[in-house]
Amino acid sequence: MQQLNGRFMAFFIHMLISIGLLALLLAVVRWAWFPGALFDIAGGVQGLRILIPVDLVLGPLITLVVFNKAKPKSELIRDMSIVAAVQAVALIAGMFVVHSVRPVALVHVFDTVYVLKTRDLDNSGIELKELDRLPGRYPKFLYVNVPSEAYDFALAYSKNMLSGSVPFEYRVDLYEPLPEDLSLFPSKLGGDARCLKVDVESDYSSGQACLNLIEKKLVGFGDSK
């Protein structure tokens, strides 16, 4: 019974440590890698599905299995060090996976914001360093200056594709930083500079959101202020 209580105490302590670590990782994922509405739109939620089992289940459960106060101190330290190492490796691998699918560019074309990951850029032959010339931190909010009228845009889009060029959202040579002055924005969108209504396309979902030109972020319609 005493050994069982010791195991559960070790499990409880490990769980508390894991919760604190998860809170730190969540802050990085939620506010640095997937800010604003990107957390829901671009796979931030799916990323947590990788981290939570690894952090809250793997480490504490292994501790529950291997912890035994009856073991010699050196053996117990060795076992717990191995548990910590396994959890650390799993967390690093999980964070690497989440980091690899984080948005690096949000490109506005006509009435749609395209959420691009590093893999999307790689598949189009674009190196991430090509975006470094543009101001702002990642994910960078950019736009392609296309005609604002639907007919003219459709014509320009068709000519671009027929010429063999990549779609506008991957035309890094045409990327420009988002202007804060709405009058300089080329597309005719409903709303104001704090909430331009745009369609959003990502690998994980599609729908509508507010594009906040002032704060350079995507937000939900109810969170635009």
Q: State the helix count.
A: 6
- Percent range for β-strand residues: 15-25%
Average pLDDT: 83
Structural class of the helices, strands and pairings?
A: alpha+beta
Uncertain regions spanning at least 5 consecutive residues: none
| N-to-C series of helices and strands | HHHHEEHEHEEEEE
**Gyration radius, rounded:** 23 Å
Give the total of beta strands. 8
Mass-distribution shape: elongated
Question: What's the story with the biggest beta sheet?
Answer: 8 strands, mixed
Helical fraction equals 40-55%
For the record, give the distance between the C-alpha atoms at the N and C termini, rounded to a whole number.
56 Å
Plain-language structure description:
The chain is of the alpha+beta class and 225 residues long. The protein has six helices and eight strands. The chain has helices at 2-33, 38-41, 44-66, 73-100, 118-123, 150-162; strands spanning 103-109, 112-117, 140-144, 175-177, 191-192, 195-201, 206-212, 217-219. Strands 1, 2, 3, 4, 5, 6, 7 and 8 form an eight-stranded mixed sheet that branches. Helix 1 packs antiparallel against helix 3 (44-66) and helix 3 (44-66) runs antiparallel to helix 4 (73-100). It starts with a helix and ends in a 6-residue tail after the last strand.
